[in-house]
Amino acid sequence: MLPQSTDPVALAQALIRCPSVTPDEGGALTLLQSVLEPLGFACHRMRFSEAATPDVENLYARRGTHGPNLCFAGHTDVVPVGDAAAWTMPPFGADVRDGFLYGRGAVDMKGAVGCFIAAAARVLAEPAKMSKGSISLLITGDEEGPSINGTMKVLDWLAERGETLDACLVGEPSNPRALGDEIKIGRRGSLNGELVVHGKQGHAAYPRLADNPVPKLARLIDRLSSQRMDTGTPDFEPSSVQVTVISVPNTATNVIPAEARAKFNIRYNDLWSRRTVEDWVRLQCEAGTAAMGARCDVSFSGTGDVFLTKPGPLVETLSAAVAAETGRVPSLTTGGGTSDARFIKDHCPVVEFGLVNATIHQVDERVALADLETLTRIYARFIEGYFAEVAAHQR
Questions:
Q1: Which of 7, 25, 57, 77 is catalytic?
Q2: Catalytic residue flag (residue 371)
Q3: Residue 92 β-bridge partners
Q4: CATH for 189-304 (1.10.3720.10, 3.40.50.2000, 3.30.70.360, 3.20.20.370)
Q5: Domain 8-187+306-394 in this protein, CATH class
Q6: pTM summary value
Q7: Which of these is catalytic: 143, 166, 181, 371?
Q8: Ramachandran angles phi, psi of 299, nearest 5°
Q9: What number of other Cβ atoms are within 10 A of residue 328's Cβ?
Q10: Which helix (H) or strand (E) holds 383?
């Protein structure tokens, strides 16, 4: 039996019971399609694949054919449960205890997906609250994975069809303590790097006959980590380099290795782009290796450039909806990790607002039932406010 489309708790429970650990669809998108189509949404299921990455199923659903197109973006894939024996409630049971709904994905982010559908169903039940326009959902099964065969490719698919998004709300859990704390209006860029310092293998007892790359790597790491990239901007905290992995292909304690490697992640603000960050890293490495007479290679990977949605009608409409339903004036922030908003920002203005993130990816992930209802009311008020703003500008 399908959950009632206006009940966020029932929708969240039904989604949690779908074991959609990345990249498995687990029945979650099928469930959404079965709920959205009776509400008048045209649903498109698409599967994308790429060499060396898993196939991923995605869903794009739209009600309406005219603009503006207000989109909700989210994901139904979840991280693994970890130690299932450590859970006090079954991770895919969607059980309720003491006012909380338990289960993997309750917060990140099946709960928010259920809330938006419930909000849209409530608004669509009263056509006078929505002027001419469209509501859409872009739901991927690849957000917790490589993020290659998900949102990015759905956006390409939309562009090929000539279909546009005019504004987007991403339902990532954005609140650190209580619903209404924060709206994400931007994210720092994220770039991964790998540094390889080359040396010459030899016996540890005869260092003159070898060239140990490990101390040189350590000095280069220290240089990258200690050099201040910037002091921050009005909207973002300072950029930083964080070394995450150091490795040497050697298990013998009496052998000087031929090379040493380090991996690092850089979170950068709007003073930088991916190209300028890469240039800065290369400059630091060139200066460091020249001083030591070392040889190194550096390579980069990553898919998330910095973005910022300046306060304006979209941000103000969401802020007003949050304040009206929670009594809190949300802070406009740009911290935290990356999200699929990094792809959407190239297509339309995008903001992020969802549940309280205190238990995401944890054992006993859970959400307060009261928060699911409050978030649904916030989303409904936001939808109404967005189209009211559109109607006002059309007069």
A1: 77
A2: no
A3: none
A4: 3.30.70.360
A5: alpha beta
A6: 0.90
A7: 143
A8: -135, 160
A9: 15
A10: helix 369-394
Structure-token match 């709206």, residue found: 183
* Two tokens, residue 177: 């303590």
Q: Which residues of 253-278 are buried (b: 16+ CB within 10 A; e: fewer)?
A: eeebbbbbbbebebbbbbbbebeebb
Closest CA relative to residue 157, chosen from 246, 67, 58, 269: 58
77 as an active site residue: the answer is yes
In order of 21, 26, 86, 144, 339, the CA distances from 89 in angstroms are 18, 20, 9, 22, 28
Judged by phi (left if over 0) then psi (alpha if -120 to 50, else beta), residue 277 lies in alpha
| Three-class DSSP category at 152 | helix
Contact 83, 120 (CB under 8 A): no
SS3 call for 145:
coil
Nearest one of 395, 394, 391 to 129, comparing CA atoms: 391
Reading the chain (395 residues) residue by residue, the pLDDT tens digits are 567 889 999 999 999 999 999 999 999 999 999 999 999 999 999 999 987 788 999 999 999 999 999 999 999 999 999 999 999 999 999 999 999 999 999 999 999 999 999 999 999 998 877 768 999 999 999 999 888 899 999 999 999 999 999 999 999 999 999 999 999 999 999 999 999 999 999 999 999 999 999 999 999 999 999 999 999 999 999 999 999 999 999 999 999 999 999 999 999 999 999 999 999 999 999 999 999 999 999 999 976 889 999 989 999 999 999 999 999 999 999 988 889 999 999 999 999 999 999 999 999 999 999 999 999 999 999 999 999 988 777 65
Q: Where do we find the tokens 């898919």? A: 303
Q: Where are the domains of the chain?
A: 8-187+306-394, 189-304
